[in-house]
Amino acid sequence: MTIVYKTRTQLVVETLREKILNGAIKAGQPLRQAALAEELNVSRIPVREALLQLEAEGLVSFEPHKGATATELNVSQVDELFELRAMLEADLLSASIPNLSEAKLEEATELLDRLNQSLGKENAANTWSELNSNYHNCLYSGANRPQTQDLVNTLNKNADRYIRMHLLWAGGISKAESEHNELLALCKQKDVANAVALMKQHILGSRDEIKEFLIEREKSIELK
Amino acid sequence: MTIVYKTRTQLVVETLREKILNGAIKAGQPLRQAALAEELNVSRIPVREALLQLEAEGLVSFEPHKGATATELNVSQVDELFELRAMLEADLLSASIPNLSEAKLEEATELLDRLNQSLGKENAANTWSELNSNYHNCLYSGANRPQTQDLVNTLNKNADRYIRMHLLWAGGISKAESEHNELLALCKQKDVANAVALMKQHILGSRDEIKEFLIEREKSIELK
DNA sequence: AATGCTTATAATGGAGACAATTAATTTAGC
DNA sequence: GCTAAATTAATTGTCTCCATTATAAGCATT
User: Fold this and answer.
1) Strand, coil or helix: what is B189?
2) Do the Cβ atoms of A77 and B52 come within 8 Å?
3) Residues of chain A above pLDDT 90, percent
4) Nearest-by-CA chain B residue for A154
5) CA A210, C1' D6: Å apart?
6) Which nucleotide is nearest to B9 (CA to C1')?
7) Distance between CA atoms of A86 and A94, rounded to whole angstroms?
8) What DSSP element (H or E) covers B70?
9) Cα A182 to Cα A178: distance, rounded to the nearest angstrom
10) pLDDT band for position B1 (50/70/90)?
11) Which of B144, B157, B142 is nearest to B85 (CA)?
């Protein structure tokens, strides 16, 4: 285990990202540089640089002279985001399966085990999304498309907020678990067509449930 | 025409991006903050922030405490980048065509005119790539997928270097012109299937020629 | 001569102070 | 009383300077 030196900017990035993803910073909320700097015991420079990086990830919107705010996706943006993911991840998977080695499949099996175990424990959402990301990346590793994988990971950072919501709120957990298991089985059988179909269903299905939830929430806000 | 105030960071971003795209800054070249700051008459802060933004665009690679370098794509990375573009742009186009209004088609026609005219003039590559981007975006506007379009534009900033090379070097110009004209005709006829096929061919064809050029270049460097 | 350690040098990372811009508030004019 | 200009306050943008880190050069040891 090598010790990794982290610059303050990186620490701020990680802290703010986690706060946005777990809801400690709410969507639409303005992010004041001075306040964040004081809270995190750094100067405004690393805060500014962190905000810029988070903007590139789509988690923050940065307007010159006006300040940064945590981004909020409306229903149609969530829709588009998940469509994109479905297309890209299906493509990655189909390119990957034929090249997946035994070792990689073994690794995926292990990750899936830990993923399923994590569900019961506390602050499940935190560790779950990291393990989930690792599991998916493992399945895509055969595709040998690093740029596409990076892109998918970036998109997933944005989708993560909504996926966590889904997990905590509805039966997202049990469904995800069974779909994940089935997906791995299909990969082992090298059944590309069915694996890809399941992947799309996995992503678009969660999209539908998340959209439904968002629409409900919008309604209840309007009523108020 | 409203005057737009720009921050120094934005000016540095634009200057450096253009220099990377037109080759004034070569791939692999280290980008020293102090040198750039002096050259552009600003302090190192806006330079650093600009480098971070360019990293998000994929034009620069930034390593903590080591510095930034202009990124260089090898043949397989170019390959992957153009595959990605082909998939995303084909998808955008197919979703867009059914919704393209007469006004948009008119706008595209005009942009295409200016695009074709720009080819003869001097510093063609500069204006060409901007007009080309506008033209493509116009054709995609019916898809109503702002995030996907943003993504494609980001990818194109990266591909732009190689496209310019292609234009200047080989017969990329004449081929691009005829393909662009034909593409617009197919859009007007609402012929989704053929338009999408042509789009893919347009992108993957240029990929092949660019790859060939890059391989040739690598060989000649090795010989030396 | 080669290896490992110490010291010098050059670059980046970050803090605090000041300038520029925006938004809010007050004041002047009708 | 209301609108518009002027002033003030709050926030961001940028500069200068210092701290930290990485690389290169020199030195001693074997």
Assistant:
1) coil
2) no
3) 75
4) B56
5) 51
6) D13
7) 12
8) strand B67-70
9) 6
10) very low
11) B157
Question: Could B64 and A91 be called an inter-chain contact, meaning their C-beta atoms sit closer than 8 Å?
Answer: no
Report the distance separating Cα A15 and Cα A31, nearest Å: 13
Mean pLDDT of chain B, nearest integer = 91
Dihedrals phi, psi of B189, to nearest 5 degrees: -80, 0
Answer whether A148 sits within 8 Å of B80, measured CB to CB.
yes
- Token pair, residue B153, equals 């534009």
Q: What would the two tokens of residue B217 be? A: 């270049």
The answer for residues whose C-beta is within 8 angstroms of residue B221's C-beta and 6 or more apart is none
Token look-up 């560790």 returns A127
0.85 surpassed by pTM: yes
Nucleotides of D under 7 A from a protein CB: 11-17, 20-23
- Counted across chains A and B, CB pairs separated by less than 8 A come out at 52
Which two three-digit tokens encode residue B80? 């992957």
- Across the interface, which of B84, B88, B148 has its CB nearest the CB of A80? B148
| Pair of tokens at residue A143 | 């595709």
Inter-chain CB proximity B81 and A52 less than 8 Å = no
Q: Tokens 């200047």 belong to which residue?
A: B168
What the block records as the tokens of A171 is: 């039966």
Task: Determine which helix (DSSP H) or strand (DSSP E) holds B188, and give its type and residue range.
Answer: helix B172-188
pLDDT band at A69 (very low <50, low <70, confident <90, very high): very high
Residue B85 has pLDDT above 80, yes or no: yes
Q: With CA atoms as reference, report the closest residue to B194 among B209, B204, B208, B184.
A: B184
Length A57 CA → D8 C1' (Å): 37
Per-residue model confidence as pLDDT tens digits over B3-50: 557 899 999 999 999 999 989 999 999 999 999 999 999 999 999 999
Residue B63: what are its φ and ψ, rounded to 5°?
-115, 130
CB-CB contact of A70 with A27 (8 Å):
yes
The residue among B73 and B169 whose pLDDT is bigger is: B73
- Which CB contacts under 8 angstroms, 24+ apart, belong to A21-29? A21/A59, A21/A129, A21/A157, A21/A160, A21/A161, A21/A164, A22/A125, A22/A126, A22/A164, A23/A161, A25/A70, A26/A70, A27/A70, A27/A71, A27/A72, A27/A73, A27/A161, A28/A69, A28/A70, A28/A72, A29/A69, A29/A70
Residue B95 has pLDDT above 60, yes or no: yes
For residue A5, list chain B residues with Cβ-Cβ distance below 8 A: 64
Q: Name chain A contacts of B151, Cβ cutoff 8 Å.
A: 84, 151
User: Could you tell me if B205 and B175 are in contact, meaning their C-beta atoms sit under 8 angstroms apart?
Assistant: yes
Rounded to 5 degrees, what angle do the CA atoms A208, A214, A215 make?
A: 90
